[in-house]
Amino acid sequence: MSTDRDDGLDLLREMLPEMLDGQTGDELHMDGFAGELAELSLQNVFGRLWTRPGLDRRSRSLVTLGILIALRANEELAFHFPIALRNGLTSAELEEVVYHATAYAGFPAASAARLVAMRSLGDDSTS
To answer: How far apart are CA 28 and CA 122, in angstroms?
Structure first.
């Protein structure tokens, strides 16, 4: 029987293969202040929430991107733009998410998300 942690690790391996390829997940533990944060994310966010049957991964990516843009959680966005591509969104759809965020999260948040997307997706253009 798998645990939420195992399910979360399997899911992350699928969505971020370059980050977790061949790793056991023990590498996610951080030393120092709040060192269990990554472990909690693995178990609760990816193991419990992302594996729920109510939404498909593509839909979860859309929701996640919108929330992260609104929160200006740029470090998390850097992981979730590539995840969204693997979950079936196109680059054009990712652009639309950023455009749409201008109305609900504001231009500064959308502009910051654009820069994160360009870096995390390897787009060096300035257009």
So the answer is: 24
What DSSP line would sit under 89-123, residue for residue?
--HHHHHHHHHHHHHHT-HHHHHHHHHHHHHHTT-
* C-alpha distance across the termini of the chain, in Å: 50
Q: Are 47 and 35 in contact (CB under 8 A)?
A: no
Query: pLDDT, tens digit, for every residue of 36-84?
Result: 888 899 999 999 999 999 999 999 999 999 999 999 999 999 999 999 9
CA distances to 21, 122, 124 from 47, in Å: 18, 28, 34
CB atoms within 10 A of CB 31: 5
CATH class given for the domain over 56-127? mainly alpha
Q: What is the pTM of this model?
A: 0.88
DSSP 57-91: HHHHHHHHHHHHHHHT-HHHHHHHHHHHHHTT--H
The Cα–Cα gap between 104 and 94 comes to 16
